[in-house]
TrEMBL record:
Domain of life: Bacteria
Protein name: Uncharacterized protein
Gene source species: Streptomyces durmitorensis
Amino acid sequence: MHFESPEKTSRPQALQEDEYFLYLVERAVDCLDLQRSSPPDQLGRIQESVFRPDAVPTELPAFRATQFPTAVCWNGWMVKRLTDLLGDQLETRLIWSEDPTLTPHPNPWGF
């Protein structure tokens, strides 16, 4: 099992079949638009997230919103990378996009 800090690597390398890669997402960013996002439920989940585009850390593979620090938000380029590596073993759910033709998942945190 590999444990890497975000400072050491931004993208996973090719892994052997029996290897695992852990990416610890520690960075919390104040990027939610609180006026346009839904209020948190009793568990702190924000059902409809709207981000401030200028504040989203697109250079990071993943981040946490300061208003919902238990959730991990993956940037699109990293979701593509993970999907390429894992295929149908990975479930992805869109929570927000600047692209108006894309529709966020209606229940992004329900599994």
